[in-house]
Amino acid sequence: MSNEYGDWLLDTAQDYLLNEVYMIQKIESTTPFQDGYLMICEHTDDSKGVYFVWNDDDYGWSYKEVYV
Fold it and tell me: Which pLDDT tens digit goes with each residue over 24-34?
């Protein structure tokens, strides 16, 4: 995968999550994980959350909140 395509995937995943989960104020860090990204986010109420974001060939972008 070229650097340009990898950067585009990361930017698109972050934009998708910010647009889908309205309580996210900012994304603090992103780590590639399996076929997607783990993102640590700060919510508008100053709490933090972890989300897994991936791109599926059939359904497009999706996310799940990770509870620890």
Answer: 999 999 999 99
Q: What does pTM read for this prediction?
A: 0.90
Pair 53, 31: CB distance under 8 Å: no
How far is Cα 51 from Cα 36, in angstroms, rounded to an integer?
A: 10
Tell me how crowded residue 22 is: count the other CB atoms within 10 A of its CB: 9
Strand partners, 26: 42
CA atoms within 13 A on the CB side of 18: 11
Mean pLDDT rounded to a whole number for the chain: 93
Please, is 13 exposed, middle or buried when counting C-beta atoms within 10 Å of its C-beta (0-12, 13-18, 19+)?
A: buried
